[in-house]
Amino acid sequence: MTAKTNSEQAKAKVLAMAANLSNEALCTAWMATEGKPVTEELAMVRGWLMDVLNERLGDDQFDEWLMAVDGDGNGLDPIAYFSR
User: Fold this and answer.
1) Structural domains in the chain (count)
2) Each residue of 63-74: b (16+ CB within 10 Å) or e?
């Protein structure tokens, strides 16, 4: 068995932490990444958070949230999609 790479270890750690977050805390974590300068690390974390959001929202709600934007063209807080 090979050792996990740093990236695999980081992903496992973030997914484990995200799995323990309430929906509200998960959405707060997501929104904290909005508008930040794009880095490789930020893109990876956002992808991991999106994995958890997709799992919790289900495909239809997740897709609806991804396509939704506010009047300025910014993404919306996913919390509203948990109550639909």
Assistant:
1) 1
2) eebbeeeeeeee
DSSP-derived 3-state class of residue 65: helix
How many angstroms separate the CA atoms of 25 and 20, rounded?
9
In the chain (84 residues long), the average pLDDT of successive 10-residue segments reads: 74 84 95 93 91 95 94 90 86
- pTM score of the predicted model: 0.82
Count of beta carbons in the 10 Å neighbourhood of residue 24? 11
pLDDT at 27: 96
pLDDT of residue 2: 57
Dihedral over Cα of 22, 80, 71, 48: its sign: positive
Domain with 52 in it: 21-82
Residue 11 belongs to a domain = no
